[in-house]
Amino acid sequence: MVLPIYTYGAEVLRAPTEAIDGNSESLQQLIDDMLETMEGAAGIGLAAPQVGHSLRLFVVDLSPLKEDLAEEGETVPDGPLVFINPEMVDEFGDDVGYEEGCLSIPDIREEVDRPGDIVIRYLDRDFEERELSASGMTARVIQHEYDHVEGILFVDRISSFRKQLLKRRLREMAQGNVEADYPLAD
User: Which stretch of DSSP H or E encloses residue 155?
Assistant: First the structure.
């Protein structure tokens, strides 16, 4: 089921997230719904707070970019990845700037600097402990979604000058004046 996505200004995007303490049918359904929602919105990552759940959970699927990234020499994980109770072990390497967007902040894209490499520990959807080393776009998308479970949005990471230029648009979005090609929460 496609879930509505919460947008900038919604309290759930800033609320502390809770660890998931066990597998359940409802958790597996939420994961399926998040994957369907992400795909329906043409996204490559989605965190539980974006669909109204204050849980330490996010999904990533770079498959739509696989060919383009392969041309740039980047290897992308196959299929969607599910991150339950993620813990960032390390972020390192040179900061790399790249224009980011977010399903919770439609129609705004801004340059964000992030470390080029990461190591993250998490449980997969079968509750198997995993550790993933990633670089390039994979690292960037994971960092972006990890930020969501920490209550951080990509606009928090842009320059104060750029944020000032977006102030009016963000205020309007927080007041509900926002449209997207996918369902939004009221």
Answer: none
To the query of whether residue 36 is one of the catalytic residues in this protein, the response is: no
62-74 residue pLDDT tens? 998 888 888 888 8
Q: What is the DSSP letter of 169?
A: H
| Domain layout of the chain by residue ranges | 11-174
What's this model's pTM, rounded to 2 decimal places? 0.96
Cα gap 167→98, rounded to integer Å:
21
Nearest to 138 by CA among 129, 146, 148, 127: 146
Residue 71 to residues 68, 75, 100, 140: CA-CA distances in angstroms?
5, 10, 20, 18
Please pick, among 25, 145, 150, 172, the residue that the annotation labels catalytic: 145
Model pLDDT, residue 24: 97
Strands of the chain (E only): list them: 45-47, 57-60, 81-102, 105-123, 129-135
Give residue-wise pLDDT tens across range 79-100.
899 999 999 999 999 999 999 9
The CATH code belonging to domain 11-174 is 3.90.45.10
Is the separation of the CB atoms in 120 and 89 below 8 Å? yes
Q: What angle do CA 83, 84, 85 make, to 5 degrees?
A: 120
Q: How many CA atoms lie within 13 A of 1 on its CB side?
A: 7
Residue that the structure tokens 């919460």 belong to: 6
